[in-house]
Protein 1
Amino acid sequence: MVFSYQLFGIFLIAIALISIPLALYLYFHIRVKKKRLYIIEFEVFLLLLILVVGLFAGKAIGGQVSVPFFGQTQGPFSEGPNLPVFSAINFFLHLDEFEDVEDISYDPRDVPLPVGNRSAQHLTVDLVAKEVLSEITDGTTLNYWTFNGKVPGPLIRARVGDTITFSLTNDMSSLHHHSLDFHAVTGPGGGAKVLAVQPGETKNLTAKLLHPGLYIYHCASSPSVAAHMTHGQYGLLLVEPEGGLPPVDKEFYVVQGEFYTMGNIGDKGLVAFDSKSMLDENPNYIVFNGRVNALNEKMYADVGDSVRIFFGNGGVSKISSFHVIGEIFDSVYPEAAIGSETHKNIQTTLVPAGGATIVEFVLNYPGNYMLVDHSLTRMEKGAWGMLIVNGSENHSIYKGEVSSSAPPGH
Ligand SMILES: [Cu+2]
């Protein structure tokens, strides 16, 4: 199951390359020694072998062999969306050197302190691009590419007018080069033109935050920016306005992302990235914070609490219809805009790929409230998480006999 398609291709190339000299040897051996001429049979056999080699090995010249085979691009980078076959082989050769991360998900409660009334400052932010192994669901392991070993990367919190020196290190164990494009940064590539790092390299960018808002950051490296992003390389940078956002009781950090894997949803073992399904925009997994169940038994609040969720969409392709089952957002910062009027009383809000939103709501009634992308087929792919609310019931708001067979979150 694991790597079956790619390995089959590599297997064919190997067989073809070994078979050609063998076939030539047999052909001439029989012809010369035995004086028997199976010329037509051998010529057909040789022709088939040359075809196989031509189809597969021919692509090897110039580093064009890729998995899956024959992927082509009309994009700005000549390499295309696929991982080179040598990269796949390299991955297996270094399999033992990757860190096996117990839990790839960034804890949704791990939100930095608000900026409050402080004045603008010069901050430093250190990020490490690291390729690791971890489970997306029980028994299913992916090769994640991360910032700081988690998905999403850390929530960075600053205020408008701050200057940040970003330091990006590409871990020595990486097999790929990486970079950073901060949507919050004004300038070429959002920083990616400066922060392109080879394995073992560190680079710095100093940038001033000119606009408040909640901004995606992501890797922007070739051969395919999309391939890097969908391995898990994204996070959010919050630029608070002067004086900060209004205080709330609970803040959470959630980022949606897609994972494109060979085979079917739930296949066990180490599963490979599938660039074909990425180009088809048909991921096997769509999850919050890097894996299935990442948010569960972490998001707690009490009746009466005001809750704010910083929600981003790392994509790489899908637009999220963010909704909390059983709640209505009191306020939505549409497209994470800070500075314009918030939208009031919203059921579901659109979050574009490479975009974000901020939602706020006060909890009125205890129970389990499910965060979803309301393209609800995506629940089957993992896009759900639970906010658990404790407190006393107010029967003027909600009253009735709760069925034991009721779906969770309802
Ligand atoms: Cu990258």
Note: Residues 129, 145, 178, 219, 221, 228, 233 surround copper (II) ion (CB under 6 Å).
Protein 2
Amino acid sequence: MDEFDIRIGPTEAVRLAQRIPEWLQQPHRAVGAPDNQPVLVAITEEALLSACRHAESSLDEIGGVLVGHAYQWGERTVVEVCAALRGDSMTTGRAHATFTVDTWAGLKLQQEQLFPDQMIVGWYHSHPRMGIFLSGMDLEIHEGFFSSSWHIALVLNGQGHRCGFFIWKDERIVPAPGFYCLDALDKQPRLSLQQARRNFTYAEVGDSSAVSVEESSPPEPITNTAQKPEVVSSQHETEASEPPTPPVMQETMRTALIGLFIIVALAWVRYRSRSWTSTR
Ligand SMILES: [Zn+2]
């Protein structure tokens, strides 16, 4: 774990200011059921689009950090994501994304230079052709570096066009049942967003491929509890190294086997009847 030995957030506890979300007065969309949670997640369409395109760009796991604001709104914590910064120098692979010290340092530097009045409020990474969940290693990263109540995680499957946020709730990391998408004032929405079971599908407006891909994607494993990272870890590693056979594939194989069995049975019956006829 020494490769993660760098503080990504403030070392001391941040006291969040009380504020009313300004975007409540501006165009925004509630995706899923973001209300009634201790942490409300809001993300600009621009930031989400950037993370989605990053996830779509590679079959290796990629990632980066989420930059924005965190504040209290009454009893609730609001996390507003304004930008997704890409961890371009990450060592990546099909089954993992390694955040090196250099990656973290580079991302922190980018945030300080480009968004000096904002904070790193979380991180994102992709699960290429996998479900939306946090593996054991993901949980370790989140618990180790994003342990404040206002730290969030975003997981994306760029091929299945799925995504989901994770928030802290009662000292556990849980999937957020919804989030707010903050639309640009002067533009038409560029992402269509929908709830799909425990996570969300996205499609760039005008891109018809997204939904059909999503519908045939394999079911995702049950998400995390912070208490049992080992179990989730093994699910992740198994799934990462051996992608599950999609239901469509299983169905095709079953049909092929039944077809083969019928052909063999018919050939056998024909052979038997011929030999039976010839012996008579
Ligand atoms: Zn992961």
Note: Residues 247-279 form the longest helix (33 residues).
Protein 3
Amino acid sequence: MHVSAPDAAATQLRQALAAGGTPAGLVAFDPDRDLRPITLSLRAAHGAQLREVADRVADAGFALIEAHEPPTPSDLLALARHLGLGEPFLPPIYRRRGSVQVDDSGVAELSAANAVPGAPMHPATSTVGQNWHIDGTLQAMGEIRTSVLLCVRPAATGGDSILFNATGAFVELARSDWAAAVSLMSPGVLIRTATVNDCDERSAGPAFGMVAGHLLTRYARTNVDRWCPRDGDMDTLRRGLDALDALALPGSPFHLRFRLSSAQGLIMANARICHGRTPYTEGPQPRLMLRGLFRADVVGERSSAREAARR
Ligand SMILES: [Fe+2]
């Protein structure tokens, strides 16, 4: 994976924007298209369904799917194989003891019911809201390309999914305030801290950057993120963050909010869009989500989906 040096990245982005047109996935969401679930069988998804998922991820940065019945971890892995995602990636922090455990399959069961008594709170295993982030807090930008989230049981109330097309919004920022955009591409500008499983490790890097010619992100706006602008120019960085905060609000074309029902799920281009969740309350049975992280890119595997369709 080739990550461009920061100045080269800015030059590449300027050239890409100057070339005219905006690549698919770097434009606003289209709710009429994006919120129409793609119905499929997780275990036996076939060619047309796989192509539709790949196209939707390419165009929107995510695909909303609906399975015939509530998923199991092996269903998630089967769908991932159909999409050419390969085996799940397990970030090392999940090997620590704590509230978020991933078994040997590589699929995490995310539920507030799994919180370890006395362990520090983490949004993944609590009912609080979760603000914008990408999965893989400590991983390098672009390392986790795809995050698959399947709903086994929704919350009694709340627990809505929220999505922010961060790379699309960043293109808009770059067109209106180039200096602020460049500030967000500087190395070390965003320091993320992993707090899951009593961890306190940090990872510094750019918030946006060019990787192998594609604009990618590790943007996050949670309470454990810190910002450290190049040359200490906080004013320029602040302009960029304020602009992106505004573009992430409800009503923005880069914002979506919806609620996953049982057997629905999201396949997200984790290095292109950010996600989060609203707070929720539990019913008699706790909210339960399954999640798998993958280093492969559904968009890049479109040909694999086509291969699978021919089998
Ligand atoms: Fe997440």
Note: The chain has one domain: 6-310.
Protein 4
Amino acid sequence: MNSDISEVLKKKSSNNWKDDVSILWQLSKTYIWRLIAALLCGLVLSGINGAIAWAIKPALDSIFVEKSAGFLILLPFGIIVLFLMRGVFTYLTNYLMSSIGAKIVRSLRQGIYDKLLTLPISFYNRTSSGSVVSKVLNDVGMLNQIVAYTVKDFFVEGGTVIVLAAVAISRRWDLALLSFIVIPLIIYSIGRLGRRMKRTSMNTRRLISKVTTILHESLQGIKIIKAFTMEKEMAHRQEEALAEHYRNVMRETRINEFSSLIAEILGGIGVAIILFYGGHLVISEEISAGAFFSFIVAILMIYTPLKRLSRVHNNFQQARTVIERIREIVLVEPERHGRIEKEIEGQIVFDNVSFRYPSAQDYTIRDINLEIRRGELTALVGYSGAGKSTLADLVAGFWYPAEGDILIDGVNIKDLSLESLRKGLGVVTQDIVLFDDTIKANILFGRPSATDAEVIEAAKAAYAHEFIMELPEGYEAKIGERGARLSGGQKQRIAIARAILRNPSILILDEATSSLDVESEQNVQKALERLMAGRTTIVIAHSLSTVKKATRIVVMSGGRIIQQGRHEDLLLQSGLYQELYNMQFVSKESNSPSVSA
Ligand SMILES: Nc1ncnc2c1ncn2[C@@H]1O[C@H](COP(=O)(O)OP(=O)(O)O)[C@@H](O)[C@H]1O
Ligand SMILES: [Mg+2]
């Protein structure tokens, strides 16, 4: 987002409509010339509408009263020209306004996406990705319509109403006044409905976001859904979400249509009174028949733009809900970071570190004191839930300690720039994340500036080159979304090649092989050993062979370090490590290779 827009969104006080107008203005003002062009076309359009109503009097009076044959021949041409111009200017106005709407939507979507990339992990921890997707696609998409039609309605239909009112007044002012009495009534009743509209509209947005979330999660977890035969249950959940959304949409429709209905009824009453009084004036020859019909046409023509104008308020309320929902993302503080730029060498010190997840009651990590020297291999072991992954995430700066400090090469992690920290860091986890692109592009993700030769070298080091070459398109082969076309072990080796190419000083391996079968595990294991060579590595127990080699084994339980030392020494103490070690033997035989499983 151009930063001034997020600034604008920040300034808004929660319930002031002027702020919302100002936000819409800030969003559109980049396209000021287009906007002016659109409004000029709209002005011409209003003029043409007025001209049509105005021309009725001379036309009728000349043809029907004076019976002028010459004027009759001119009339069709005049009508054709006016309607042609009306068509052309309607086209131009709508085209220009729609393009402004579409441009705003494009830049908002880009802006929100950019913003999402800067948000801290804590944001993603408390927000479902489906609801974010829904905001970026559905909510922002709605703004397109709102901007295109509401702004146009407001200015163009508003202009038309004024021009036609002028024609009506010029024909017979007391008749016009009579018909205008109904207008304030209409505006009043619409205003009351607008407030309900805003509430309903907010609900609709929330509910469609629920629908999107279910859809999104189902697509991601389609295998699990099928494997657990949860199809019926999921269908049922979606059915409920859709039903709730439907009810709300219909509520919205009722309010919207009710606004129109009121306008229509009041309009009808007005027309009845006017016809009666006007007919009386014509019979008593106070005005000409032509003037009266010109007046009637003007009033009838006012009706449609007035109805559209009555929508403006509701649409504006919808726009406000969209703005509010976007603000929920835009106002989140970006990831914190310090300013110190440095190349990381790889010494890590935990100084009395404790950490609590924002959503949790209790500390997940407690009083951790640990010094990891440069190039050392440290293994974290412990039961599932002991806090191993959390500790690793702290090193990656995804979260900051609540108490104590983490120092990297003597610099507090909070003072390091994010760029420096993350550049020096490689992470390989159990969930393998590959993007829907070629294999080469996925490896290049580690360091986009790398040459082809470097990519191949990294792939070779990760034991991936061979199987890549066996694919028909080699490095250019597309990985389906979430890597559907490769085996787990192959995907993991691509992820390792990516990490090798990045060449980080600190490496975090979080159960990198635990989701793999024994055979792929061995290949990946070899690749990992290449990757670990010469780097400070924190490995979360994925295989006994690595743990044995560790300079130091850290045994965790309940977020604390309860034992640490070398394999041989720990094995002699009776304690958790011995217990885990014995279990490891058992589980090794049953092909389940993770200590923490
Ligand atoms: N994002 C999170 N938000 C809240 N609690 C979490 C989050 N991630 C993990 N936890 C909790 O923190 C504890 C430690 O989790 P974790 O570090 O993943 O353990 P391990 O990797 O040792 O299995 C667990 O009790 C877990 O429920
Ligand atoms: Mg874990």
Note: The longest strand covers residues 348-355.
